[in-house]
């Protein structure tokens, strides 16, 4: 049943690279038009990563830090 | 086992690898790259030093305590910049609100560069620390 619904959904998907696809109509035009004026960086990827999705990047860094702290505490030195 | 060839080549390569890593970090706002990628490159240069020489000479460049401070410092710098914007009356991580004598977009660009550097410091210190800790276990079994 679920498989049949999924197959029907695949048939209804927009063509690959279609500029009219819903995913290209939501926030992407705003990023492309306003990223330089709003964030002051020319690289849109960096603008999205650090500014528009800054919370996400900070959380990602926290995840890496926590994982690293756990490994360091496991492998830590005897004299410390 | 490292020969004089390996040592010489890696000694010549390491400064250029680190320079390229710094370039990748600093050029994050204008070209592909950024803190994560550049930090990994600089961390890999430390690993190359440790592989071609020995662990203690590589650790002489940055001690364990120093790396732990850099590791936490990078993430604190990122969060601190975010808090600065909060204190200045904006939203958390709204870089343009930080009061500097520049246009908001320029302030934001500068802060994004600083955040990239913070990410780079964090990733570099963590990469090197994890490798050094794992290699140390092998050299001196407890």
Structure write-up:
The complex is a heterodimer of chains A (80) and B (142). Chain A is built from four helices and no strands. Chain A has 80 residues and is an all-alpha fold. Chain A is flat and about 55 Å long. Chain A has helices at residues 2-11, 28-39, 44-52, 54-75. Chain B is mostly helical and 142 residues long. Chain B has helices at 4-26, 35-52, 55-59, 64-87, 104-139. In chain B, helix 2 (35-52) packs parallel to helix 5. Chain B is elongated. The relative contact order of chain B is 0.17. Classes of the chains: A mainly alpha (80), B mainly alpha (142). Chains A and B meet through helix 2, helix 3 and helix 4 of A and helix 4 and helix 5 of B.
Sequence-ordered SSE layout with sheet pairings:
The complex is a heterodimer of chains A (80) and B (142).
Chain A lengths: L1 H10 L16 H12 L4 H9 L1 H22 L5
Chain B lengths: L3 H23 L8 H18 L2 H5 L4 H24 L16 H36 L3
Helix pairs in contact in B: 1-2, 2-5, 4-5
At a glance:
Chain A has 80 residues and is mainly α. Chain A has four helices and no strands.
Largest sheet of chain B: none
N to C succession of SSEs of chain A: HHHH
Query: Largest interface, with Cβ-Cβ < 8 Å?
Result: A-B, 30 and 41 residues
What Rg of chain A, in angstroms, do the CA atoms define? 21 Å
């Amino acid at each position: 049943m679920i498989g049949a619904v999924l197959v029907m959904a695949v048939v209804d998907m927009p063509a690959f690279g279609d500029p009219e696809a819903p995913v290209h109509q939501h926030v992407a035009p705003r990023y492309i038009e306003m990223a330089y004026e709003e964030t002051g960086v020319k690289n849109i990827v960096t603008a999205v990563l650090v500014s528009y999705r800054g919370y996400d990047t900070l959380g990602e860094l926290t995840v890496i830090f926590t994982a690293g702290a756990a490994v360091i505490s496991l492998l830590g030195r005897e004299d410390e | 086992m490292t020969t004089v060839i390996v040592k010489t080549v890696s000694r010549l390569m390491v400064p250029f690898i680190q320079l390229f890593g710094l370039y990748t970090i600093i050029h994050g706002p204008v070209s592909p790259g950024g803190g994560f990628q550049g930090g990994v490159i600089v961390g890999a240069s430390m690993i190359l030093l440790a592989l071609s020489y020995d662990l203690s000479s590589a650790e002489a460049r940055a001690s364990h305590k120093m790396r732990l401070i850099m590791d936490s410092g990078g993430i604190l710098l990122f969060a601190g910049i975010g808090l600065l914007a909060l204190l200045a009356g904006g939203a958390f991580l709204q870089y343009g609100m930080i009061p500097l004598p520049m246009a908001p977009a320029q302030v934001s660009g500068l802060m994004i560069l600083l955040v990239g550097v913070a990410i780079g410091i964090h990733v570099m210190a963590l990469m090197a620390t994890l490798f050094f800790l794992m290699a140390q276990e092998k050299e001196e079994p407890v």
